[in-house]
UniProtKB/TrEMBL annotation:
Residues 29-79 form the Aminoacyl-tRNA synthetase class II (G/ P/ S/T) domain. GO terms for cellular component: cytosol. Pfam families: tRNA-synt_2b (PF00587). GO terms for molecular function: ATP binding; proline-tRNA ligase activity. InterPro entries: aa-tRNA-synt_IIb (IPR002314), aa-tRNA-synth_II/BPL/LPL (IPR045864), Pro-tRNA_synthetase (IPR050062). It comes from Dictyobacter kobayashii. One of its GO terms (biological process) is prolyl-tRNA aminoacylation. This is Aminoacyl-tRNA synthetase class II (G/ P/ S/T) domain-containing protein.
């Protein structure tokens, strides 16, 4: 699944009339590709999976579908510090 995603899939308004995901996400890293299209660094792959389901699921008879995502998780945060508690010997 792509890490850099087209911005337009994030700007689709939900059916209930609420805000788009791009409006509700505070920080989306954005850039333009070499063709000038707006792209974002997608924090999740839900929108990409939704597009896949929209393309391949036409009826309830097409369900269930299993969609797997296997990739390296990249995080921009400090690594957790492991603290080991060892009881003091008497």
């Amino acid at each position: 699944m792509p890490v850099i995603q087209p911005r337009d899939i994030w700007e689709v308004k939900p059916a209930d009339g609420g805000p788009s995901r791009a409006e509700s996400v505070d920080i989306l890293f954005h850039l333009k590709d070499r063709r000038g299209r707006d792209m974002v660094l997608g924090p999740t792959h839900e929108e990409v999976v939704t597009l896949l389901a929209k393309e391949f699921v036409r009826s309830y008879r097409d369900l269930p579908q299993l969609i797997y995502q296997i990739q390296v998780k990249l995080r921009d945060e400090p690594r957790p510090v492991v603290v080991c508690c060892v009881p003091a010997s008497s």
